[in-house]
Specification:
Elements: E1 5-8, H1 13-20, E2 25-29, H2 42-45, E3 52-56, H3 62-74, E4 80-85, H4 88-96, E5 102-105, H5 114-121, E6 127-128, H6 136-145, E7 150-163, H7 167-175, E8 182-186, E9 193-199, E10 202-212, E11 223-228, H8 235-243
Parallel strand pairs: 1-2, 1-11, 2-3, 3-4, 4-5, 5-6, 7-11
Antiparallel strand pairs: 7-10, 8-9, 9-10
Helix pairs in contact: 3-4, 5-6
């Protein structure tokens, strides 16, 4: 099971800690091309000596796609296996440069049904991250009816919003404040306390609860990776979660179907 877990790392030293626990697949957020993650720069990326994947989760304007193209040419690491990406322009660059990297589409909230996932997989995409906002039965159906192995999120805070605006900075400017760019906000209606993280490229908001979907580890077929989002968590937090015999965290949408219209209520 652990041989298929992939975790995003915050620094190079975490790799050794994870390896000692049998986790050997790593997702490395590329500096200046991610929002909501702790990032590593190109110098550190070229030092990684384990199989890894780059994460690029920004939506990119044309000029930044051109910059990314030049960065790809500077990557000199035989351990790089592929790219997790959100902007389809990244796919075009990989194809244009004829890079032999796996292409994994990671569009938050998109991978909700097998028909759309298969449509992407037919367009020279090797795998896709399934949404963690659907039920266990829906995930099972997707795994049974897609053409390639998929990535399913199993643990971590859930990203509920991404904006290209600098929301905290704008708030600081408007009200003459100096709030840190990694913070918590309280939503007035639900009283939820949400985690918020900003860099110069945008802002991401995460739910207040950890989504514990580790029961999905029982799915063995058509799995490329089980993804653990380590944002706001320590390596020890991850190890304790994996070793728990009883589940105490929130399981998100696994047992509760999302209501889209009134007619769904009685289903």
């Amino acid at each position: 099971m652990k041989e298929k877990i992939i975790v995003n790392i915050k620094n190079l030293s975490e790799i050794t800690e994870y390896e000692k626990q049998g986790i050997t697949n790593f997702l490395v957020p590329l500096a200046n091309f991610c929002v909501g993650y702790d990032e590593l720069d190109l110098e550190d990326i070229n030092k990684v000596t384990n199989d890894f994947y780059l994460l690029i989760n920004r939506l990119l304007p044309y000029e930044d796609l051109a910059k990314l193209k030049e960065i790809f040419k500077q990557i000199d690491n035989r351990f790089l296996k592929g790219i997790f990406f959100e902007d389809l322009g990244v796919l075009s660059i990989i194809n244009e440069l004829n890079l032999n990297w796996e292409k994994i589409y990671f569009a938050n909230h998109f991978g909700t049904n097998y028909a759309s996932i298969n449509a992407f997989l037919e367009r020279n995409i090797d795998s896709m991250v399934v949404s963690n906002e659907i039920t266990k039965e829906e995930i099972k159906e997707i795994l049974n009816k897609t053409h390639k192995d998929l990535v399913i999120p199993v643990y971590g805070y859930n990203q509920i919003m991404y904006s290209r605006r600098n929301l905290i900075s704008n708030f600081n400017t408007e009200f003459a404040l100096n709030l840190p760019l990694e913070n918590k906000i309280t939503e007035k209606v639900t009283k939820k306390t949400l985690r918020i993280k900003e860099n110069k490229y945008g802002t991401v908001i995460y739910d207040e609860k950890i989504y514990n979907n580790l029961e999905l580890l029982e799915f063995k077929d058509n799995i490329k990776f089980y993804y653990i989002n380590t944002s706001f968590l320590t390596t020890q937090d991850i190890f304790e979660a994996l070793n728990k015999t009883e589940k105490s965290d929130f399981n998100g949408f696994l047992d509760k179907k999302t209501i889209y219209k009134i007619g769904d209520i009685n289903e």
